[in-house]
Every structure is written in C-alpha cells, then in structure tokens.
Amino acid sequence: xxxxxxxxxxxxxxxxxxxxxxxxxxxxxxxxxxxxxxxxxxxxxxxxxxxxxxxxxxxxxxxxxxxxxxxxxxxxxxxxxxxxxxxxxxxxxxxxxxxxxxxxxxxxxxxxxxxxxxxxxxxxxxxxxxxxxxxxxxxxxxxxxxxxxxxxxxxxxxxxxxxxxxxxxxxxxxxxxxxxxxxxxxxxxxxxxxxxxxxxx
Length: 201
What we know:
Number of helices: 7
Helix content: 40-55%
Number of strands: 6
CATH class: Alpha Beta
CATH superfamily: Pyruvate-ferredoxin oxidoreductase, PFOR, domain III
Number of domains: 1
CATH topology: Pyruvate-ferredoxin Oxidoreductase, domain 3
Structural class: alpha/beta
Radius of gyration: 16 Å
Shape: globular
Low-confidence stretches: 1-8
C-alpha cells in the first residue's frame, strides 16, 4: 500500500489539448524533455491528432515521474492545459478535485470545474509579442509557474533548443511573460486567501 501511494505521489500526468496549428505537440515535447533532460526525471509523451493536421483536434499526453513509467497513457490528469473549448470539453470530465486546470481564457470561455482553475490570455499576449503561434510557449511558462511540474531553468533551456533558429529571443520573452503572469496570479490568490484585497486607496 505504501509503495503504491508513493508511486502515485511521485508522478504527474499532464494533458495539453487544443487544435492543430497551435503547437500543442511541441508544448508537450518541451515539457517532457525539460523534465527528463533538465530535471533528470522519467517522462513519456504520447500524441493524438484529429483528421486534419491544422484545425483538427489534437492533444499531447505527458507523464513525469521520479520512478520508471510502465504505462504511457494518462488515465486521470493531474494537470490539464486547454487551448480550445473542444479540447477542454473532451477532457474536463477526467479532472478530479485535486487536479489543476490551465486555460487560454479567450479560447476556453465556458468552464465548470471543482478543481483549481487558472486562466491566462495566452493568444492575446502572443499577438502583442508579434506572433500568436507563441501562445503555446506562454502556456508553458504559465504551467511552470503555477504547477512547478518542471523547473524554470530546464524549461527555458528546452524552449531555446526547441524553437526555430532566429526566434529564440522572442520565444524566451513569451515564456517569461507566461511565467511572470503565473507567479503574479499565485501571489494574488495568496493575498485573497489571507483576506487582503491589495487595493490602493
């Protein structure tokens, strides 16, 4: 019994979902590679595409563990990153009270969960940087700050090694914007929990 509990506690099951063209699979690869190469953990990645490569539904399933992983498919996601309403609708039913949901607030407007839910305008922020395709990198930064699933250093290094040559600086900026927003979101939640509004008279 003890061994089973420890195994579950040392393992994080993650689903990244959206539609083709958003860089969903790349986001899953970066998270998994950061965990294995940067944080020296075990990780697996499985991916699924809809009937169309661009515009169709797709998802990446990542498992990160301190121990060998014997089954590579996510059964109960500890963390769900949703960049489309359809993706959220497909996997929301798997979430439990202890799960964490991260969404792009403009692309996933309808959410009804009992677990912790954090949202960020990732696509809007990416457009301001100059390319909405960087929304996935912003979400990785947000994920890193909110969940601690991978370390910031490992995530940054993996982003730099995974994006097209010449775009490293913009992608790192995107990552850090997502990360900083996640940190400020957590601080705001802590203030509210402590009964502080943070309002300035």
